[in-house]
Design goal:
Chain lengths: 276, 314
């Protein structure tokens, strides 16, 4: 573990990503302390004002402070990212473990169902689920979680099938250790490397999908300060108030960029082929 | 090979059947009365009952599914609940636009991504490589809707240019058509270029390390020949995988881009029908997209064996 952390610190690109993510997390956690105003406070006499010392990133069409809304928006993005990926990762882990370990008919059924989900482009599947559940924050997280589940299932299944062939597993099976114990104690810890890399990459994907859905008006609903909602709202005024679009766009891009940097770096560190 | 293609085509049947089941029954879970949503709160009881009768909404769900599926198998996707138009011709007409957008974006991204990926791979750990890597990662990280809006903004502020409104078919007026499609294609192509660039770079790196490359170099082959005739051809397999996946992503990604640039493509049709709760259009369009999606994946698999004769399918 120590070696791993040291290598991560040595890898400047990954470290940059990690620092960026920690900054976003800090912003989200300390939002009430950092943000000068509440995200929904309207300053009606300061509508669409450019950046100033009073409003660092300017104000939007309702006179709300864009800087404060971006900081609170980080809460929404991270919340969606963590919960949606949590749903996808845990669901995928359970299904992948069962599928990969037991194989046979169970595996066939699970994987054929996953094939069906793989036949949908991500955003369309999310849109369909939202159409059924209705657009709001919770349903957005559920929809994204379901969309991500097949990727995790496939990844875990193939990792389990590789690990299962190791002698320590066949030994454990031979002395009669219960399958549930083998899965939890011996298999799960050994498939964590690709699983963690996928989580990091899925986090950026989830934040991106949430922003896209909210941009289309089918994700987080106004007046919640989602970056996607802010971007969509700003389209009407962007030509004479470009700050309304630039700052939320930079926030989305930088956050996803940092997650991708860290994901890339982790993949390089945890992939034995690339270590050589 | 043919046996493999036929088997793969047959395997599409259960997948598409699964998609049809998922989409049909998922839409039926939607709470509330669809007829009421479509006709509005002012609708009379009679008109509501008529709509339910016309679209079979008053019959058991299983029966509705069987009727729909039998129609689909005969090439009849039913009629739109809101416009009354035939669904399949509408889908096909709109798919032409989405298809053009996808192909243009893909071509644009390959022109940029493959050469840059190769250069980054050859010049590993140099400034060029570092720049290409950062640019490609940025390409992957910029959401297409953010790029589209910022690009429109920059063009409006610096050149007072706004994207042309209204769609014109390629065969009607090719120049006008390309003017309309250029900006959306650049936006969609950027994200794909990032992913393809990354894959090209890592595949080239992997191939250049292999023994056969060393042998070819030892024989005195020109470096250009080594790269283009041997390394790139072998590196194309993973690149193709990502291209296949990206084309699928593009098909879905057009939903947002078509909305921003007011292109009447398939994505916009899906979005409008979702907002209007037009079941027949949603299920027809999504089944069609899924069909194209799995077909593209199959095509990629077949292309593998063309590029690498070592891959044989049984």
């Amino acid at each position: 573990m120590k070696v791993f952390v040291q290598r991560l610190i040595d890898d400047k690109v990954g470290l940059f990503g990690l620092i960026g993510i920690l900054l976003v997390v800090l912003l989200a956690l300390l939002a009430p302390l950092i943000a000068p105003y509440k995200p929904d406070t309207m300053f009606t006499e300061h509508v669409l004002e450019g950046p100033s010392s009073q409003f660092l990133f300017g104000t939007d069409e309702f006179g709300r402070d864009i800087f404060s809304r971006i900081i609170y928006g980080a809460q929404v993005s991270l919340q969606v990212g963590l919960i949606a990926v949590g749903i996808g990762a845990i669901g995928g882990l359970i299904l992948g473990l069962i599928s990969g370990y037991f194989q046979g008919k169970v595996d066939q059924v699970i994987m054929r169902v996953m094939d069906v989900f793989f036949a949908f482009p991500d955003i369309l599947l999310a849109l369909t689920i939202i159409a059924v559940l209705g657009p709001n924050l919770t349903n957005t997280m559920i929809a994204i979680g379901i969309v991500f589940m097949p990727v995790f299932t496939r990844l875990v299944r193939s990792a389990v099938m590789t690990v299962k062939e190791n002698e320590y597993i066949t030994n454990a099976q031979a002395i009669g250790v219960r399958p549930s114990l083998i899965i939890v104690r011996h298999i799960t810890p050994n498939i964590m490397a690709p699983f963690i890399v996928q989580i990091t990459l899925a986090l950026s994907g989830a934040i991106l999908t949430e922003a896209a859905l909210s941009f289309l008006g089918l994700g987080v609903q106004p007046p919640n300060p989602s970056w996607g909602v802010m971007l969509n709202d700003a389209r009407t005024y962007m030509e004479f108030a470009p700050w309304t679009i630039l700052f939320p766009a930079v926030a989305i891009v930088m956050t996803i960029f940092c997650f991708n940097l860290l994901g890339d770096s982790l993949r390089d560190l945890l992939d034995p082929k690339l270590k050589q | 090979m043919y046996a493999y293609i036929i088997r793969r085509l047959l395997m599409l049947v259960p997948v598409l059947f699964g998609v049809s089941v998922v989409i049909f029954f998922t839409l039926r879970i939607i709470p509330g009365d669809v007829a009421q949503t479509i006709l509005g709160t002012d609708a009379t009881k009679e008109s509501l009952a008529q709509l339910r009768k016309d679209f079979g909404l008053d019959r058991p769900v299983i029966e509705q599914y069987i009727t729909w599926m039998s129609g689909v198998l005969m090439g009849d996707f039913g009629e739109s609940m809101t416009t009354g138009r035939e669904v399949l011709p509408d889908i096909l007409n709109r798919f032409k636009i989405t298809f053009e957008l996808t192909i243009l974006s893909a071509i644009l991204s390959w022109i940029i991504a493959i050469p840059l990926g190769v250069i980054a791979g050859i010049k590993r750990n140099t400034k060029t490589d570092f720049t290409v890597r950062i640019v490609s990662l940025l390409g992957v990280s910029i959401p297409n809707f953010a790029l589209a809006t910022v690009l429109i903004l920059i063009l409006a502020l610096t050149f007072s240019y706004s994207p042309p409104v209204g769609y014109v078919g390629f065969f009607e007026d090719p120049i006008r058509n390309l003017q309309i499609m250029l900006l959306p294609s650049i936006v969609l192509g950027t994200a794909m270029a990032g992913a393809v660039m990354r894959m090209t770079r890592s595949s080239i790196l992997e191939i250049l390390r292999q023994d056969f490359i060393r042998t070819i170099r030892a024989k005195g082959a020109k470096e250009r020949l080594v790269i283009f005739n041997h390394a790139l051809r072998n590196a194309m397999i993973p690149i193709l995988t990502i291209i296949g996946m990206q084309i699928g992503v593009l098909l879905g990604g057009t939903v947002i881009i078509e909305q921003i640039f007011s292109l009447p493509g398939l994505g916009q049709l899906v979005l409008t029908s979702i907002n209007q709760r037009d079941f027949t259009v949603i299920q027809g369009a999504i089944l069609f997209i899924a069909f194209v999606f799995v077909l593209v994946n199959l095509l990629v698999d077949i292309l593998y064996s063309y590029l690498d004769p070592r891959i044989t399918y049984k």
